[in-house]
Amino acid sequence: MVKINGECFDVAGKSLAECIAAMNYDPRLVAVERNGDIVPKSQYSEVILMDGDGVEIVSFVGGG
Questions:
Q1: pLDDT per residue as tens digits for the range 43-58
Q2: 32: which of 54, 56, 58, 63 is 20 to 30 A away, CA to CA?
Q3: What is the pTM of this model?
């Protein structure tokens, strides 16, 4: 299980890019932290999530 934004999901073995897409986030508008480290957007497809990972996904919202 992988904890994403405080909730557990069964996504171990999937790439971060797959997870972001499955959760309906726009990868252009998010910042991702995995186990305390910021993940560069260029690595979303390369990072494979593992059991016990902690992920925080923050999406940017414009407005005024």
A1: 999 999 999 999 999 9
A2: 63
A3: 0.89
